[in-house]
Every structure is written in structure tokens, then in C-alpha cells.
Amino acid sequence: MSLSEATHGSPLQLTRLALAPPRSARSFVTRGRLQVCVGLSLLILLFIWFDFSGIIANMARIDAGFAAVAIACFAAQFALAALRWMYILSRQNLDIGWRSGLSVYGAGTLANLFLVTSIAGISVRAVLLLRSGSALAGALAVLTAERIAAMAGLAICGAAGLPLAFPYFEDHLTAAPPTHIAGYAVAISIAVAAAGALLVIRYAVIRDFAARLWSAFSSGGAVLVLAVSSAGVVLLGFGGMAMLAGGMGLDINPLFFLSVMPVVAFVSALPISVGGWGVREGMMVAGLSIFTIPPESAIALSVSYGLAGLLVSATLGGLSALMSAAPYRNRQ
């Protein structure tokens, strides 16, 4: 099926096209199976390695009141992230309507939950934006701006928490001093910027994409809105996790949520698992060990966080995906 044929097909056909183009369907399925195996294998290994009964006992003792507040935090997080998405759409002047915009966002959320993390959601949203009449450069600019904003939210929270939490990490940073880490980061940033500049100069479509992407951040007000909303999305998610930890009776230093969790969230969002499962639990065990939290408690907290987030995102994402009766109408 070609892209032009797909624009007149069903949403299911569009999703299949985005996620598994015919020429690479076999390799896509193979990669998907590998990522499922990686995530589930890590999770099973953690269950075997540590006390599984202790993990279940920690999850079973979550207080219902704390759990309700956590779910409310996750619902507010979804709503704020959806509003950020709609704001970015408005900055790109994509006239697809707010119902269609929310529908595209919800479809991408569902894809991220049940398929390859990040890649699935981006692919589904890209094709549905194209089907709604967006130009390719405009669709890519929206998706890139949304990812930049999300990563900026993690960076803001991490930058606020790391200096305060440095004494906890001092012994863990001897092998890679902060100055070396900063040097590597600067070198990589320069290389990426240089490659991007060459591409912008060479290709017209990339120049169009760069101009559209810049429009999302071209004013101080827009940068402020995206920075505050992105930090709010991150803090609401971490707040929900803190409520679950409180419901388990875990005494976790608040600095953990501002210093370690941004790294955990970033790694969990990489396209190496499905929904972050397995990867997130391993990172949580490593991160919480710095704050003397037992592995069983760390795994229980991570699994509870994942299940609560799955419940909220699947419910609200599904409702958002159904928001418009005809969100995929071709406007061309």
C-alpha cells in the first residue's frame, strides 16, 4: 500500500502503514519481538533474582487513599501533556481542529503503551497528521518540538535536583567526573549541530522543517509556556510516584525524584522496550539503591507506577483517540 493510497484507507490501515511498511515489515516485526523479549526478560530476571513474594507484599500494602491521589496526578499529567501538544499544533498553524488534534495525540499514546516505546507513537501521530492534511515538514516539526519540550522538562527537573543531591552521588562519580561528562556532552552537541547545519544548507525540505520547528520556540512567551508545562508534566508524574511510595510506607528522599527519576524516565523512553517495562525496573533498583531503598521495594514501586500509568493513559488515551468522529478526513 502506498502513502497516497493509505490516505483514503481506514485508521487501521494507516497505523499498519506507519508501523510496518511492506518492504520492511519482517524486519520491523523482528525488532519488535526483540524489544518485547528484552523488556520482559529484564523484568523476569529481576523477579527471579530478588524476593518475588516481597515485591508482591509491597504492592499489596499500598494505601487506597494514596493510590487515588497518585491516579489523579497521572490524569492531570495526561491532560497537561495533551494541552502542550495542542499548543504546539497551534504554533504550527495546523488547521485540523481540536478534536482531531486530541484524537491524534490519543492514538499515539496508545501506540506507545502497547508497541515499541516512542517510535510507535511518533509513527502513528506522523501518519495521522499527514492524513489530516498537514505537510510533511509541518508534521515532523510538531513531533520534534513535542519531543524537545518533553526532554527539556526532564532536563529542567534534573538540573534543579542534581546539585542538591550531589553528596549522595559523590562516591558514584569517581569513575566519570562531572567535568568529563560535560565535555562529552558539549562535543556531541557540537557534532549534532554541525551535521544539522549541513543538512539545512543542502536540502530544501529540511530547511522548511527547520523553519517550522523554529516557529514553535521563536518567542520568549512560547519558550516559557513549553518549559513550564513540560516541567509540570514531569513533576506530576513524579508526584504520582511519590504518592505510591507513601502508600507503601517507603521513606524516600524527595531529592530522588528530582535527581534520579529524570534519568530513569529518559532511559525508559528509549525505543529498546515496550512501554519501558523491564528497563524502568532495572533503573529504579540502581537509582534507589543510592538512597538505601531495598531492591524489592524499588521493583514494587516501579511496577505499581507502570500499572497505574498504564490504567490512566490507556483510559484517557482511548477516549482521546475516539474524540473526533472523523479525525482522519483528508483535507486536501
Shape: globular
Structural class: mainly alpha
CA-CA gap between termini: 19 Å
Main beta sheet strand tally, sense and closure? none
Order of helices and strands: HHHHHHHHHHHHHHH
What's the total count of β strands? 0
Detailed description of the structure:
The two termini are 19 Å apart. Helix 8 (136-169) crosses helix 11 (220-248). This protein has 332 residues and is mostly helical. It is built from 15 helices and no strands. It is globular and about 55 Å long. The protein has one domain (47-321). Residues 1-32 and 325-332 have low confidence and may be disordered.
Write a brief structural summary.
The protein is mainly α and 332 residues long.
Features:
mainly alpha; disordered C terminus; 332 residues; single chain; globular; disordered N terminus
Helix and strand topology:
Layout: H1 3-6, H2 11-19, H3 25-49, H4 52-60, H5 64-91, H6 98-114, H7 119-131, H8 136-169, H9 178-202, H10 204-216, H11 220-248, H12 255-259, H13 261-268, H14 279-289, H15 295-321
